[in-house]
Amino acid sequence: GIAGFGAAVVGALWGYSGWGNLTMLGAELREPERNLPRAMGFGIAAIVALYLLANAAYFFALSPERVASVAPGSSVAHEVVVGAFGAGAAGLMAAALLASSFGSLHVSMLTGSRVPYALAQGGLFPVAFGAVSDRFRSPWVAVLAQGSWAALLALSGSFDVLTDFTVFGALIFQALAVAAVFVLRRTQPDAPRPYRTWGYPVVPALYVAATAWLVISTLIATPGRAFAGLALIALGIPVHWYFARREPDEQRAAQADTKK
Fold first, then answer.
1. Is 253 helix (H, G, I), strand (E, B) or coil?
2. Please, what sign has the CA dihedral across residues 171, 150, 148, 99?
3. Percentage of the chain surpassing pLDDT 70?
4. Is-contact 42 36, C-beta < 8 A?
5. Residue 260 pLDDT exceeds 80
6. HSE of 231, CA atoms in CB hemisphere, 13 A
7. Whole-model pTM?
8. CB 47 within 8 A of CB 54
């Protein structure tokens, strides 16, 4: 039904979720107000084109029934390659998928590590996560922590389960970030805004509504995975509560420590 379709869309959105990673690097870009929207626009357009071409190739090589009946341990790409070039090509396909997974993991670690780094800089996370390498000028503690956590997650379940957790959680926070546009425009009408919100207020409102539908569909279609993802997010609440309650002097001291 509709809920199942929404849950399937959440799985497909894994291929497009990288656009959010770009925003985490905004402070490290030259002219981010100009280059960040361009990078996001061109990047998403390229991904859409590649995915459409790949799916057109799948349905050219296989019937819709064959695509729908691919075994859980296999993939549509694997079946297409084996059917076109023989069983010997399966190893090359597996190597290509492995390289793609490593590339995605690499990007996620380097960009995602900027979140605990920024929190530490603001006094809302342990001071160590704000440490920057003198040689590479990167938040090395945050990168190592992100990589270690990713390794543990990789050992905890299947790829599909992990991607569903990731996309489900990302959708919630992305919707909150977009909804914040309405709040900030009302509470801070005179604040500088170097980034334009195209189609405001219709476009962000449609995005929030569509994302809310996807989140609700996931809760209905796969409640186990959805609530597990919510539980992981909830683990951060006591951490935030602890650091947010500290006195301003403690927060300033923590910020000074991260800059040493």
1. helix
2. negative
3. 92
4. no
5. no
6. 6
7. 0.74
8. no
How far, in Å, CA of 98 to CA of 92, rounded?
Answer: 10
d(CA 244, CA 125): 9
In this model, does residue 255 exceed pLDDT 90?
no
157 pLDDT more than 80: no
Identify residue 220 by its one-letter amino acid code: I
Give the distance, in angstroms, between the CA of residue 205 and the centroid of all CA atoms in the same chain: 21
pLDDT, tens digit, 9 for 90 and up, residues 38-74:
888 898 899 889 989 988 999 998 888 888 888 877 7
Q: Rounded CA gap, 105 and 102, in Å? A: 5
* 133: DSSP letter: -
Contact 24, 112 (CB under 8 A): yes
* 130 CB neighbour count, 10 Å cutoff: 24
Are 204 and 181 in contact by the 8 Å Cβ rule? The answer is: yes
Q: What is the reported pLDDT for 205?
A: 96
Q: Is residue 171 within 8 Å of 214, Cβ to Cβ? A: yes
Q: How many residues does the chain have?
A: 260
Asked if pLDDT for residue 97 goes beyond 70, the answer is yes
Q: Residue 44: which H helix or E strand, with range?
A: helix 32-61
Q: How many helices (H) and strands (E) in the chain?
A: 13, 0
pLDDT of residue 178: 92
**30 by DSSP, 3-state: which?**
coil
